[in-house]
Amino acid sequence: MGFLDRLLGREPSSREVARERLQLVLIYDRAGLSPAILDTLREEIVAVLSRHIEIDRDGIDLSVTQEGRQTKLVANIPLRPRRP
Amino acid sequence: MPGTVITITSGKGGVGKTTVTANLGTALALLGHRVVVVDADIGLRNLDLVLGLENRIVYDLVDVVEGRCRLRQALVRDKHLSELHLLPAAQTRDKTAVSPRQMAEVCDALRPHFDYVLVDSPAGIEQGFQNAIAGADRVIVVTTPEVSAVHDADRIIGLLEAAERGPIQLILNRIKLDMVRRGDMLTVEDVLQILAVDLIGIIPEDEQIIVTTNRGTPIALNGNSPTGRAFRDIARRLRGEEVPLEPLRDKSWLGRLFGFMRSS
Fold first, then answer.
1. Contact yes or no for B31/B142 (Cβ under 8 A)
2. Is the ipTM of this complex over 0.90?
3. What domains are there in chain B, each with its CATH number?
């Protein structure tokens, strides 16, 4: 069944599932970052920045990337235009 | 020139460290190098069994460390290759019988007499692993393309980096080409992308490994075996030769048919 499902694009291959699960668990292993900590970070970053500047809270993108064996936390924070 | 100490480790047990150590030792000796393989898995010794030398052991690593014999007396000469020697582990003791410092001293004592000192590490991240890497100039991490093995390999690589041991190179063991093709096994590229270390070789899944281990004659001795060739290629890369990665042989029925037609 798995094969037909995959052929029809209904289910990712077990290889893809393995790769994604490993990548997520290794981010936690290497940097101690869990999805819950990431959520907390996002909230606190918003709180700190909001005290000084106007930011677009819905447009915030906080993500974790790998470069070689280096883990990077990348934050993309759109700013709101200053009100006249 | 003093020899190079290479530790073979993995984190997870059962991924093929001992088989890799026995076969790389054999392959390096086939190339004419003086080689000693050291079993650092005290209490769970198996390297002697894989090499077919279990009946020749007189003294072991712990006897050397505790001064009951000289280093040379504990070395067992291989029955196939005169350049290959084994320093067996003790079977009746545990990992605490040797300290990392003592292990590094044993490696230093072996260096002048051999071109390569291969240390077979126990599984785990505890003292046995710390002992095994204590004298290492280079480290080979063995993994299979399974989530638990890759997960543990990453942990080991992190520990090696923290201990500033290296260079670190990866052997990907037991690749099944038919499963990779079905999308049911991590590919070589997946594992390399996840672990981000240099690859030194790929070993296909091969039931002949069990057969040759049953007999105590490493597959690297078999000139016709593609798996034996994979080990011999890694040995050549270890000594600095540029050897391209051999594409894996097809195990699907179609591939076998074509392989059969080509070979007949």
1. no
2. no
3. 4-263 (3.40.50.300)
The amino acid sitting at A26 is L
> pTM score, two decimals?
0.88
- Going by C-alpha positions, the residue among B202, B262, B192 that lies closest to residue B231 is B202
Q: With an 8 Å Cβ cutoff, is B162 touching chain A?
A: no
Alpha helices (H) in B111-176, listed in sequence order: 127-133, 147-162
Which of chain B's residues have a Cβ under 8 Å away from the Cβ of A66? 196
A18 contacts on B by Cβ (under 8 Å): 147, 186, 190
Minimum distance, in Å, between the CA of residue B184 and any CA atom of chain A: 5
**B216-244 pLDDT, tens digit each:** 999 999 999 999 999 999 999 999 999 99
Taking the C-alpha atoms of residue B18 and residue B252, their distance in angstroms, rounded to an integer, is 28
pLDDT in tens, A26-56: 988 888 888 888 889 989 998 999 999 999 8
Scan residues 31-70 of A and list those with Cβ closer than 8 Å to B.
66, 68-69
A19 touches chain B (CB under 8 A): yes
